[in-house]
């Protein structure tokens, strides 16, 4: 015992780059989740939930060996119980595709799927870049036309609108198919070699492994040089070009603005044809809030029948930051009713009443005792006020004796009746009537963003 007392317990803190979402922010996450879910449902997408841990081989194969993610960002470990090589998922597509194949999901036809959850990448933590971060994504599996690409882009647009986010622009490109990229690659490498003195160390390293990714560089001293590099768009064959123009036609017809960014590529090997990003200037260097594209070759790479697919993933932390900047919706009240009670008998009755009020669909916080004791009437009323409740329901000795409760309107305007004595058995009806009924009630209790 004295041992414990002597040693001051060392503080354990969160893992670097992994954030807590505290109650003050959680309602924004809830709002994002509810909005995103209702948007994707309005396009007929269905949820899929896959494990956070997968076999390392899944990502090595799906994402490609010479990518940032597989080269240096994965949380991989050996399961000490059985020696399995496992990885915390760095992204969602690989797991979804694995599940689709494992359960033969596209057997009955193409599928529109969505997922959300934490992803893990060992990167240098900074604004908009964390080691645990959350994505919301969609995958449409089994569709090959440009129409679904356009649909997914329009779905994103609708989500930005529903979230009240402006200033997110769409960048669009086509990276063709493997053959077209191979032809482009020869010219690209030659071009980059002729500017070798301008290449940074990272670019030199990638010159012969993943030169396309050099186009994506964030190094300002290389911008001008990469701007002059051969453009993949100029290497597209007829079919790829027709696909790209098909996407553009639908976007144009629906007045979805975009800019064609010939340098837009994906860091992941399995993409082909359409690639897109939604970008904002409001978040500093980490301005991409959503990235997507086609990945027709992936499913065959996994041993499945050739199955075209397209998807995107959004970074939720970055979108939450934009939501905050756009003007935070008020934090919803903790409850509709705060239950104040004095004395043992009143406490017992308060429990009964609390359950009844909840049965009627209202949110109730019942005062609970702390180290300071059960709390004086004054203390409890202060708590009631702080909770944002529309009503305090008060049970004291007098109320118990009279089989009644006092109901106090906490947000009453001047001249309105503030406190009523209500028979115990009528309290629920009284509250429901005050809160939801009547034309001229003044209590706006249920925030529309707050689901009950
Ligand atoms: P970057 O080039 O910025 O590293 P990426 O190509 O690695 O991006 P994707 O794999 O396409 O990013 O992920 C899709 C989205 O997920 C990104 O556009 C971003 O919004 C978000 N995202 C990716 N990595 C992180 C991270 N470490 N922390 C927070 N959000 C992230
Ligand atoms: Mg990255």
From TrEMBL:
It is an enzyme of class 6 (ligase). L-histidine binds at residues 91-93, 121, 135, 139, 266, 270-271. Its main location: cytoplasm. GO terms for biological process: histidyl-tRNA aminoacylation. It comes from the Bacteria. Keywords: Aminoacyl-tRNA synthetase, ATP-binding, Cytoplasm, Ligase, Nucleotide-binding, Protein biosynthesis. It is found in: Cytoplasm. The keyword Nucleotide-binding applies. Pfam families: HGTP_anticodon, tRNA-synt_His. It catalyses: tRNA(His) + L-histidine + ATP = L-histidyl-tRNA(His) + AMP + diphosphate + H(+). Homodimer. This is Histidine--tRNA ligase. It comes from Rugamonas rubra. The lineage of its organism: Bacteria, Pseudomonadati, Pseudomonadota, Betaproteobacteria, Burkholderiales.
């Amino acid at each position: 015992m004295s041992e414990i007392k002597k040693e001051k317990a060392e503080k354990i803190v969160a893992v670097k780059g992994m954030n807590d979402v505290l109650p003050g922010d959680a309602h924004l996450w809830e709002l994002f989740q509810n909005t995103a879910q209702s948007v994707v449902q309005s396009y007929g997408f269905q949820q899929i939930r896959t494990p956070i841990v997968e076999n390392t081989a899944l990502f090595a194969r799906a994402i490609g060996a010479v990518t940032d993610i597989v080269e240096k960002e994965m949380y991989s470990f050996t399961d000490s119980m059985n020696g399995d090589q496992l990885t915390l998922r760095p992204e969602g597509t690989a797991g979804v595709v694995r599940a689709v194949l494992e359960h033969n999901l596209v057997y009955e036809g193409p599928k529109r799927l969505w997922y959300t959850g934490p992803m893990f990448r060992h990167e240098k933590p900074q604004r908009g870049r964390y080691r645990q971060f959350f994505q919301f994504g969609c995958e449409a599996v089994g569709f090959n036309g440009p129409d679904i690409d356009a649909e997914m882009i329009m779905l994103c647009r609708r989500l930005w609108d529903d979230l009240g986010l402006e200033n997110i622009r769409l960048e669009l490109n086509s990276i063709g198919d493997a053959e077209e990229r191979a032809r482009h690659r020869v010219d690209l490498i030659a071009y980059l070699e002729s500017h070798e003195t301008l290449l940074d160390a990272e670019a030199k390293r990638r010159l012969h492994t993943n030169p396309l990714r050099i186009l994506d560089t964030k190094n300002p001293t290389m911008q001008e040089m990469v701007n002059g590099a051969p453009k993949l768009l100029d290497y597209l064959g007829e079919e790829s070009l027709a696909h790209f123009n098909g996407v553009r036609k639908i976007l144009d017809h629906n007045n979805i603005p975009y800019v064609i960014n010939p340098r837009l590529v994906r860091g992941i090997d399995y993409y082909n044809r359409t690639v897109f990003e939604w970008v904002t200037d409001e978040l500093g260097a980490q301005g991409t809030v959503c990235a997507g594209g086609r990945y027709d070759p992936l499913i065959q790479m996994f041993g499945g029948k050739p199955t075209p697919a397209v998807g995107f993933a959004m970074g939720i932390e970055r979108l939450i930051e934009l939501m905050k900047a756009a003007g935070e919706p008020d934090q919803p009240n903790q409850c509709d009713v705060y239950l104040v009670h004095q004395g043992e008998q009143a406490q017992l009755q308060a429990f009964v009443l609390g359950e009844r009020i909840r049965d009627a669909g209202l949110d109730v916080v019942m005062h609970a005792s702390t180290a300071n004791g059960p709390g004086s009437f004054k203390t409890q009323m202060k708590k009631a006020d702080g909770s944002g409740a529309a009503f305090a329901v008060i049970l004291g000795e007098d109320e118990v004796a009279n089989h009644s409760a006092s109901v106090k309107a906490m947000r009453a305007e001047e001249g309105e009746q503030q406190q009523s004595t209500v028979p115990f058995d009528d309290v629920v009806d009284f509250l429901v009537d005050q809160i939801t009924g009547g034309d001229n009630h003044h209590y706006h209790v249920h925030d529309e963003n707050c689901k009950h």
